[in-house]
Amino acid sequence: MRGVLGLVFLPWQLCLAFNIDIQSWIALSPPPSVTAKTSLFGHSVALGRDVAFIGAPRHDTSGGVFKCPFQARSPLGKTSNLGCTQINDNLSHKTADFLGASMTTSRQGELFTCAPRQGSNRYLTLQNPTGTCYRFTEDRNNSLREYFRFDRKLLGSSDYGLLTIMGHELTMSEDDILVIGAPMARTRDFNWNLERTVGSIVRASPFFIPRAKESPWSRVTLSNLGDPHTYDLAGSAIVRGRYYYDFGPNHYAVGAPKAIMMRGAVFVCPDCLSPQNTRSDKVRFDKQGFSLEGFQLGSRFGQTLCTLDLNGDGFDDLVVGAPLFTTKREQGEAGNVYVYKTNVRGHVTTMDLMNQDLPRKVESGARFGATLASLGNLDGDGLEDFAVGAPYENDGAGAIYVYRGSRSFVFSDISQKLTPADFPRLNMANFGFSANANQDVDGNGIPDLIIGSRGSRHTVLLRSLKVERIAPRSSFVVPTKVNPKDNFFMIRVIATVNQVPTSIWRAQIWLNFADDRIEVLKNNATIELNRVQQAEASFHVQSLQKDFGLDDHSTPRPIFFKGFVNWDLDPSAPKGFHVPIKDPLNDLLETMSFEVPLQTGCEDNVCKCSVELSKPNDINRVVAGTGKGLEVTMTIVNHGSEPSYENKLEITSAYPIPFPNRLKCDNLTDAGGSEQKTTYSYVCGLPGVAANGERKLSLVFDIYDWALFTDTDAIIVETKLNHGCDATIQKSWNNLQQTLRFPIEFKSEIITKSLSSNIQTQYDYNSTMTLEFKHVYLLTNIGPSPTNRPFTFNVYVPDTEALDYDLAESNLKCLPMTSGLVAGIHPPYTSGTKALSCQVETCNVYQCTIPTGMAKDQVESVNLNMAFQAEKAEMLFEDIYHFAVHTAVRTQGRYNYDDFTKFITEFYSLEVSSLAAMAKSYWPYIIGVVLGLLLLLVIFALLWKFNIFSKTRLFKDQLEEVDKKA
């Protein structure tokens, strides 16, 4: 059968929706011989390249497929009547084949369609329709060709006995292979008395069907043990998406609307149509696949599916329709849609239900969710959008709801709702029974939408308008300073966007002000950005008062404005297929505020005088003890055009001013202060300050007595300046007050020194010995600052019965604190000596305090008188003793044992001391004897040297010889 379809472009001046254009659309209608209700024209729809395909599965009892070419890229207002051809005329007609029940197109624009009730196969005692699928390719024959027909021999050992109603749903694999749904597929499960009708999906070329024992939708589970004839209808919906990190590109979601005891289910599996992977353990359903279960009995959960990336994370999410869902008793078959988010964590994928309450009109019998269509990135925001059909809403009129992608999966608003009322001349019914947006027919880069209306003779093709987003960043150019004598000035508004727009934008500018000194001749303007980034407008502002109301004694008050810029596409711009629209969520209202400063009647200065007291010189910190005076430099500045008079500076501080001549006051008077002189007040009369002049002041405060600062951490000085601007008009400027604060830092260092007296030893023959000695400690503050609080230090003395001692002091208070061993004290002992120290003996600790603190170079002494009795110590006569006393200065709130000052004394035992005393008494005699012996030895040596002994012997021999002779 052939006929002519009316191809009409109908522009309607309705409100422009976002962003599917309902002002211009293409109406596709069958020839008169095709009746609406009997043919089911619009049951399925698909888009090819410049052609629309429409299925009418009951046309002429066997079904029909119509091809409707169009010229979508032609300018608006021009129509093309190229005719429409029924492309299945070459096929033999059989009753109830239902040809055109499903459609899909490949990336090359080829059409695939099926007749799910065509053909039959006998299985056991049953004769069942199997289904046949066809392919249409543009060639000279311009007709359908058989693509796939079922043969039971193809099943082999797949555990399936028959594929029934094959072709109810279609989709394409990544490599453009047809994947077919067979919701009435029967398995040969020999564990049951009868076969089970569960459904499945198959790949057409080469043929492949998952094994029944391995596919998730046909395995025997606890959920279907009690229902061998489940009629799950798996394969009623099929979508391909990216749900896993790996396992190839072909991941599928399969709807089974009557599974799980009629609640419905969706089965998700990775690459479940690959022979290698399906029979492999790595894709077993219990390890890698999962299912989503319905929530209501008989709701047909999984009847429709839509896959798209709603949140832009790179993985596809899933929208599941349940068109027979009942919300209330009186709202049967209202329908519902569930939105699932895909979570991919490594090799594990889960899906979480994120939304089950999309905004819509809830109506009994509407069957919301009977149609689901992915619209791609319809609005250009990087997130994919989708459409939901409710073909029986409003007493069968139908509707399509459009929802924008959301990173949060929150759909608070309907992006757009399409109803037959948007096309008043078409009189459509069951609008939205089918929808498809798989092609960009007008070439603007956005998928376009075709919607089938199965209960009427019309299908509409709607183009999607490109959405343009801009980021406005306008600015206001105002004068640097306005001279009031001019009585007017100009303001420029530069309207700017962040990118060159592809269309004409209009910026509406308003100026808002609340100032009775001025008026704006025209406070609004409209400028146009015709594919440029920047344009500007000017505003004329004039004064309503002379010199803007500025008198000789007033401070110039700036003029304050608020500006608003509202951006919109120019509605008067010529329309066309490629004219974009704006995003309603794009914030296109700018609000800015600005000031216009005024000069004064005295040019840049306030008329008469304008005096201010500058901040003092930068004194970050005062170190106590480093100077006798604190010098603060301040400046009085007159910005006016006339000199100031009667300048008086009031000064209040806790410290006197010893050098008033440095202030250069006309007169300095003592204002008294407090009776106890804890504060000092002065009034300094100053000469006038010339116009545009200044006068420097140098305040020197006496801070020599640092005892005043031991209880404070800062020097506080308060100043107040009074002045007059006219010889006859006195003005007191109370705002010319300052409180000056200068932090004080105390830097002091205490050193200790020991002066030990000689040991006085007394002993007797009863083995009793007493040693008396004295330690004098000198503590000196080498500054530069005094100590700002009472100064304390500790003295550690070994506690032994043999030692008697007392602390003598002049300006000290020494109190016993603790007793015990003191760890960390390591005096340098002499090798071979016995130690008496705080590390060995129990130690008495005395805390000594100087209540008044210590000034710089102040020296304090501590006398420690000690007596040691050897008898009580049970000393051995051969022992040598080493005695140590320690002094610790408190530093930063703690005692540092490493900084201890150690005073060491060595003394001997009784025997050694007695021998030493005896040696001290008889040493002259011993020295005399030694010297006499040495003298004799010298004389003997001399006699020997000169042979005195030889001569004497010779003389003796001669005498004996003489005597003999005589």
From TrEMBL:
<keyword id="KW-0675">Receptor</keyword>
<dbReference type="GO" id="GO:0008305">
    <property type="term" value="C:integrin complex"/>
</dbReference>
<dbReference type="InterPro" id="IPR013517">
    <property type="entry name" value="FG-GAP"/>
</dbReference>
<keyword id="KW-0677">Repeat</keyword>
<keyword id="KW-1133">Transmembrane helix</keyword>
<dbReference type="GO" id="GO:0009897">
    <property type="term" value="C:external side of plasma membrane"/>
</dbReference>
<feature type="signal peptide">
    <location>
        <begin position="1"/>
        <end position="17"/>
    </location>
</feature>
<keyword id="KW-0325">Glycoprotein</keyword>
<keyword id="KW-0130">Cell adhesion</keyword>
<keyword id="KW-0732">Signal</keyword>
<feature type="repeat" description="FG-GAP">
    <location>
        <begin position="287"/>
        <end position="349"/>
    </location>
</feature>
<dbReference type="InterPro" id="IPR028994">
    <property type="entry name" value="Integrin_alpha_N"/>
</dbReference>
<dbReference type="GO" id="GO:0007157">
    <property type="term" value="P:heterophilic cell-cell adhesion via plasma membrane cell adhesion molecules"/>
</dbReference>
<dbReference type="InterPro" id="IPR000413">
    <property type="entry name" value="Integrin_alpha"/>
</dbReference>
<dbReference type="GO" id="GO:0007160">
    <property type="term" value="P:cell-matrix adhesion"/>
</dbReference>
<dbReference type="InterPro" id="IPR013519">
    <property type="entry name" value="Int_alpha_beta-p"/>
</dbReference>
<protein>
    <recommendedName>
        <fullName>Integrin alpha-2 domain-containing protein</fullName>
    </recommendedName>
</protein>
<feature type="repeat" description="FG-GAP">
    <location>
        <begin position="355"/>
        <end position="412"/>
    </location>
</feature>
<dbReference type="GO" id="GO:0007229">
    <property type="term" value="P:integrin-mediated signaling pathway"/>
</dbReference>
<feature type="transmembrane region" description="Helical">
    <location>
        <begin position="922"/>
        <end position="944"/>
    </location>
</feature>
<feature type="repeat" description="FG-GAP">
    <location>
        <begin position="417"/>
        <end position="479"/>
    </location>
</feature>
<keyword id="KW-0812">Transmembrane</keyword>
<dbReference type="GO" id="GO:0033627">
    <property type="term" value="P:cell adhesion mediated by integrin"/>
</dbReference>
<keyword id="KW-0472">Membrane</keyword>
<keyword id="KW-0401">Integrin</keyword>
<dbReference type="GO" id="GO:0005178">
    <property type="term" value="F:integrin binding"/>
</dbReference>
<dbReference type="Pfam" id="PF01839">
    <property type="entry name" value="FG-GAP"/>
</dbReference>
<dbReference type="InterPro" id="IPR032695">
    <property type="entry name" value="Integrin_dom_sf"/>
</dbReference>
<comment type="similarity">
    <text>Belongs to the integrin alpha chain family.</text>
</comment>
